[in-house]
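Field log, afternoon session.

UNIT: design team B
ACTIVITY: writing a sequence onto a fixed backbone
BACKBONE:
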């Protein structure tokens, strides 16, 4: 995201960062915030309550994780109607279905952790948000209605096990 500052700031968007990490990245976030006070806020640290408030208030969640074994933030986002844009890795690949223009997806994904791939996926989401609001709202609603409960997950797991058992 930090390497996309020029791209992001040229769009009619506002960004809120939440989290903590390497000091050099935190410093870059603060610098980005200082340069773009009307568009960027950085909340360094973590508060579960604040994370839920921010996620619920956003239209789009950006999650360009390089590694994500499970990931819960995209699930919270979908529950709130916040559309995820994620790097299709680990649990993100399993939980966010790429919107393909045929009204079946629950967000936008990109396959390679590269700046241009991230920008493409975000660009698709923003295009839908600004120019095809009905389609964007459909993506948000599908995320909200997605069955994320354990009963469904257990059923899908059982189906995969049976499929593996009877495959030749």
């Amino acid at each position: 995201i930090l390497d996309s500052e020029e791209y992001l700031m040229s769009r009619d968007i506002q960004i809120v960062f939440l989290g903590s990490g390497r000091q050099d990245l935190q410093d870059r976030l603060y610098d980005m915030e200082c340069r773009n006070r009307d568009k960027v806020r950085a909340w360094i640290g973590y508060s579960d309550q604040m994370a839920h408030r921010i996620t619920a208030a956003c239209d789009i969640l950006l999650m360009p994780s390089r590694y994500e074994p499970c990931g819960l933030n995209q699930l919270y986002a979908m529950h709130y109607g916040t559309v995820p844009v994620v790097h299709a890795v680990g649990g993100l690949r399993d939980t966010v279905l790429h919107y393909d223009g045929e009204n079946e997806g629950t967000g936008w994904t990109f396959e390679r952790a590269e700046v241009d791939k991230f920008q493409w996926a975000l660009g698709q989401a923003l295009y839908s948000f600004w120019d095809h609001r009905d389609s964007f709202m459909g993506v948000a609603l599908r995320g909200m209605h997605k069955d994320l409960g354990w009963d469904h997950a257990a059923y899908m797991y059982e189906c995969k096990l049976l499929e593996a058992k009877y495959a030749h």
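LOG NOTE: The radius of gyration is 17 Å.
NEXT ACTIVITY: expression trials, pending approval
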